[in-house]
Write a structure and sequence with these properties.
Blueprint lengths: L1 H15 L9 H17 L2 E10 L4 E9 L3 E6 L5 E6 L2 E6 L4 E6 L5 H4 L11 E3 L6 E7 L8 E8 L7 E9 L5 E11 L22
């Protein structure tokens, strides 16, 4: 069940990460959100492991690679044969179990903003209060697409991360009140990532011409 839920969740997550809610008054966001926006703009590449957990406590893990502009890869553990990858031209969802591929131009996908270092989180994020000054929560939602629900990005203070804050993970709440959390670990910033990391194997049978 987790496996079938995964692709939709990840695509929803990507959409929420660049949605555009009403702006927060400047006096409420100037300090912390500036730091988060600066972090996002300084990250040219990233590698991390991730663990995704649903509201029933079921978890699945994987590896994330990101390279700006235009490249990202969500690869799941071996018993979850799914892959989401952007190769600089298109966003591709591959289901190796059923041998299906879905593909969209990046320019027609919300993923464009995630992969563009020029995007500014201050334009679409809402700062949420926290009890810990070392933690920043930014809520993202798209009022034009309520089916995407709401996602809260969590950043934690880190002396080794760009601009002093690191993306810790996110929690997504969909329109049916289903909650899913993703936590990142072993994060490395601005590392060398080859373009070959964003290639993928097509599982569809080869169609032969003619008779």
């Amino acid at each position: 069940m987790m496996k079938k839920y995964t692709p939709r969740f990840l695509l929803t997550t990507i959409a929420l990460m660049i949605a555009a809610p009403a702006p927060v008054p400047a006096l409420q966001i100037t300090s912390k959100i500036d730091k988060v926006a600066a972090h996002m703009q300084k990250v040219t590449s990233m590698s991390a492991s991730f663990t995704q957990t649903d509201r029933q406590g079921r978890s699945v893990s994987g590896r994330l690679l990101l390279k700006r502009p235009g490249h990202v890869r969500f690869e799941y553990q071996k018993d979850t044969p799914l892959l989401i990858v952007a190769d600089g031209k298109a966003l591709t969802l591959v289901d190796y179990e059923v041998k299906q591929v879905q593909r969209w131009p990046i320019k027609n996908s919300p993923l464009t903003a995630l992969l563009d270092p020029g995007q500014d989180l201050r334009k679409y994020g809402k700062l949420l209060p926290t009890e810990n000054d070392d933690v920043i929560n930014v809520a993202v939602a798209d009022p034009k697409r309520p089916e995407f629900g709401t996602m809260t990005l969590t950043f934690t203070k880190s002396a080794t991360a760009p601009s002093g804050y690191a993306l810790y993970g996110w929690t997504a709440l969909d329109s049916k009140n289903n909650r899913t959390s993703v936590r990142l670990a072993n994060v490395k910033y601005n590392v060398a990532v080859a373009d070959s990391a964003f290639r993928w194997r097509d599982p569809r049978p080869v169609r032969r011409k003619g008779g």
